[in-house]
Amino acid sequence: MWLLRPPGVYGAQGDTALLIESLGRERLRPGCRVLEIGSGSGAVAVAAARWGAAVTAVDVSRRALATTWVNGVLQGRRISVRRGDLLAPVSGRRFDVVVSNPPYVPGSSDHLPGHGITRAWDAGPTGRALLDRICEQVPAVLAPGGVLLLVHSSLCDVDRTSAALSAAGLGTEVVARVRQPFGPVMLARAAWFEECGIIAPGQREEELVVVRGVRSR
């Protein structure tokens, strides 16, 4: 599936592919309400729409949302786009499936970028600035029986994600794992990761995981 990706928009990578693969196993029914938090170029949103879902995509980036909408049109699908911070644009709504590939790369500053492509990956010293908020907020927008699929790196504590979702009342399991070499952003920070004890000396690969949470009926 070819997608338009202008400069400044996060493109589909290994984490995106793993999330789409996991979403495909959910066997979405026609009209299923899907929310994507952090759409980037729209790869996951477009995949869900092609499977017949009614998709809403949220992002803070106008460029990302425009790209998502256009990519939907190019694939013959309509994707509803909303700009804003995480779940604020869809407050009061409920969804059958929520998917997210949020920023999760640890960085040396607590200050998150307010613009530019680095918004797509910078996530504070632990890599959890967005992950913790998603774990806290998503259960409120899941319909009974609704599913969350959340992908991130093992560098930012998979067990903490599972524990947070369980504490929020979701049945939780890891449904996909894959190891891959560090990409350019991770490689550029590898020495700092070693200094902080985030990775072992010489480590230059990470495990990507998809955590699945289900709201009980």
Task: Give a quick summary of the entry.
Helices cover 29% and strands 26% of the residues. It has helices at 14-24, 43-50, 62-74, 131-137, 158-167, 184-196, and strands spanning 33-37, 54-59, 80-83, 95-100, 142-153, 170-181, 205-215.
How is this structure best described in words?
The protein is α/β, with parallel strands linked by helices. The chain has one domain (14-215): 3-Layer(aba) Sandwich (Rossmann fold), CATH 3.40.50.150. The chain contains six helices and seven strands. It has helices at residues 14-24, 43-50, 62-74, 131-137, 158-167, 184-196, and strands spanning 33-37, 54-59, 80-83, 95-100, 142-153, 170-181, 205-215. A seven-stranded mixed beta sheet has the order 3-2-1-4-5-7-6. The radius of gyration is 16 Å and the shape is globular.
Specify the biggest β-sheet.
7 strands, mixed
Rg from alpha-carbon coordinates? 16 Å
The first-to-last residue Cα distance is 35 Å
- Give helix % range: 25-40%
Task: Please report the total strand number as a whole number.
Answer: 7
How many separate domains make up the residues? 1
Question: Which architecture does the CATH hierarchy give at level 2?
Answer: 3-Layer(aba) Sandwich
Average predicted local confidence, pLDDT? 95
- Assigned CATH class: Alpha Beta
Secondary-structure-derived class? alpha/beta
CATH topology name? Rossmann fold
Q: Compute the number of helices.
A: 6
Strand content: 25-35%
Strand order of the largest sheet: 3-2-1-4-5-7-6
Succession of helices and strands: HEHEHEEHEHEHE
- Write down the overall geometry: globular
CATH superfamily: Vaccinia Virus protein VP39
- Spans of at least 5 consecutive residues whose pLDDT stays below 50 are none
